[in-house]
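Narrative of activities, Objective 1.

The group set out to show that a structural description can be obtained from nothing but a protein's sequence at a throughput compatible with the screening campaign. Below is one input-output pair from the validation batch, recorded exactly as produced.
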Amino acid sequence: MNTVDANRSHNWFVRAAAVIGDLSNPFYGEERQRDVWNEASAVALQVLIWLHLLTATAVAWIVGAGALPYVYALLAMIGIAGWIAILYSWSLGVHVEERKRLSPRRLAPALVLAVLLAAGMLRAQTGHVFGDWSAVAGMITGVAAVLAVFTTARWYARRRAGASAS
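Output recorded for this entry:
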């Protein structure tokens, strides 16, 4: 028994995700197996995110400018995978971006790693950690754009949650 009957869903995204995830496999019929696999998949996604970030940071510092296209590719891969997980859960009415789920113990190392990655990328591009003004301005613009996307997503999620509660 699946959580979602993808064949009956009117949402193309849910149907496509069910095919990609092989959610009609008989393996998912047993509840404990399904729960353990879902937890294992969540752990694996987090491990992949951390490994991609660590690799991107190391490559930016060690290899330098020649590695930047690969750093961007690694960041794009983890961004796409993360957004697919969020969009799939949103499609099924589950909102994972609630503030109470964010632990400072988990956010602090991620923030440190993000700062090291940004500094490594800036150093690789300009030869200096603080670089020239245009590189710093570009990074500030990028951070502002990411924060705007997250703020908009939170606002939209709260609005949806408020509309569904009414």
